[in-house]
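Regression report. Comparing outputs from two consecutive submissions.

Submission 1:
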Amino acid sequence: MSELQDVELLPQPGAHGFDGDGTNRKHEMQGPFELPPGPEGFSFALYQSTGVGLSPGHRMHLLENSQVFDRMLEDIRAAKHSVHMLVYIWRPCALSDRFVEALTERSRAGVQCRVVVDPVGSEETTGDKDFDQKVERRLSEAGVEVHYYRLLAGKVLGRLLGRSHQKIVVVDGRIAYTGGFGIWKVWEGDGLKEDNWRDTHIRVEGPEVRRIQVTFAKHWQESGGGLLPREAFPELEPDGGGCAAFIDSSGRLGITEAERMVRLVVAAATKRLWIANAYFTPPNDILEQLEVKVRQGVDVRVLGPGPHHDVPVVRASQRSTYERLLAAGVRIWEYQPAMLHSKTMLVDDWLCVVGSTNLDALSLNKLSEGTMVFEDREIAAKMEACWEKDVRHSKEITLENGGRTNPWRRFARRATQFAGHDR
């Protein structure tokens, strides 16, 4: 073999990324972005990044904690054509019984009821393995069609990570819900007791409900269901209200729609960026964006779970980000009474985010997630009030008060980043 051939077999600069001086970063998605000002500029940026821009004509209702179930069940009981549910967690409990009863009644009245659950959240959980016996069997006997999303045959690592973390309910193709909810006892309370998780959800009417229905349809098909009938997709005309976009994201190689959405929402902030998130340990690029926003004079705040957390290693990973953010000027609180499970962002006085997307590597890179992004000043004011109420039940973290990192926190962050890392 010639000397030239030997050289060509070695890694080369350029596309191989072995230039060694860091210039390969110019070939990766960068931030922070400079967005055109206001809702129109943000919508245009969102559209060219995700294929979805803000569209007008949506009536939305912010629902805290268990409020969502009373409203949801009311809509389900009034359903005329179809009820579609896609949830990560559905486990036997009193709340589950209420849904089983409502779906049973509607199914026997001729309404097409379809349910998809993720087996990791709903079935393969120690002590809660009775979804098939206590929930699925009852629903199936009543005529409700139930499927599991991606069965865990073989339990290959990629299959364990490639789950659906979506929380979607669509009634008659006209009303939709998303947020952090699951069908389990921890969501039944007010978020002020240790065994009642604090969460936030959104009810939507308007054109984007069709996009949410498409998300359900894709999961339904992959789980063994057929094509949905045409009446599941009614024409939905704009009818007042705010502008909204539903961002459907799934795990893939490269930057997902979820991460694109988060980066653009952060970039849109000019005065305020308040983040409440159950699993706050974002990639370094987003942490850098937050630091830049502080330098630009933006009021950046983070609210995360405190002593009550369902995944201790993620809480440690979350706390590993504090030292650098506090040093940059970000204010941080930890919610004290219960597990904080919300996934919300509030930008200035007009842009809101409510959905299932956590700010960790797993959600941003591997999981199927859904998020409503919308311009609605009335709901923005309500989210501000919710934030201030939650802060009254929270502990502010400083460098002298729990904000320093340590070897355990650094290890936890490496572990959680590795679990969801794809590039």
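Submission 2:
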Amino acid sequence: MTKIRVAVIGCGSIAKHRHLIEYNNNPHVEIVAVSDINEARVKETAEKYHAKAYTSYEALLESENIDAVSVCLPNYLHAPVSIAALNAGAHVLCEKPMATSREEAEQMIEAAERNNKKLMIGHNQRFVSSHQKARKLIEQGEIGKIYSFRTSFGHGGPEGWSADGADSWFFKKDQAFIGAMGDLGVHKADLLRYLLGEEFVEVGAFVETNAKENINVDDNATLILKSTSGIVGTLAASWAYTAKEDNSTILYGEKATLRLEDDPEYSLIVQYNNGEVVKYELDGIQSNEDGGQTTSHTIDHFIESILHDTNPLIDGEEGKKSLQVILGALESVETKRIISLEK
């Protein structure tokens, strides 16, 4: 069978530690080309994967016959580069957050539809074993009605992992658009929508830059969210968890409490209100601390959706809904009001 010809645009850390490794491990993929404005970085990457190097993504899209593209660039470039790749006839896997505005997200979705191509957003938390098991338990009615939740995603900041360290684009508002809330918070907004199986209708937020110097994006954010059925809870995103990464989610239900990625040994613990406790030893969530994110299943799912012509789990519409939670949080901070997301 002919392999899917893939290009990776942006050769920073997420490309290096996830996209390129997972594409390389997929038997249905050939990495044809890579692009990055850093000439030394793109040449090194191209040599490693026996691909062609480009310092211009436009030249890559014009010169190469590409089936699929990963967009691993600063946030402000997600929409224009994804749209260019879709218009060039490639399926697109774009890193999160998918865009910097609702309008950009809608333009990406329109480009995918017009060109009859897949658009997937890299919300890898949906593929974590404990999260998938929790969703099944919820769907089966195992914990009954859900009343509340709290979720947190925090670590010491991207400077320890980003290709450019302390000079990373993550800290620059003109390139990142938002800080910890866009880097980490949008992941948890997407995860909660996936677990609860319903949308958020209201959001209030507090956002601060109080942990790092010489940055102009948020490094701490706390959101209060309300879902369609009245489930309320909190979402925290932070670059100030300096001792240890926290990527936990707790759901409080009528029959049980679910603790996801909250225990060092068991990735899912179910505490029933009759005193019974069930501990699931599943594949742990991957983190930067562990030195890689090489089997997130994100890339494999994207490739499968192309091979079998199926809709990816996180398509453009799903990506847009998760982005809108974060955009609503920003509006809440600016207006000091609770924001309705039913627009």
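Expected: both submissions complete independently.
Actual: both completed, but the second showed a warning that disappeared on reload.
Relevant detail on submission 2: The first helix runs from residue 13 to 25.
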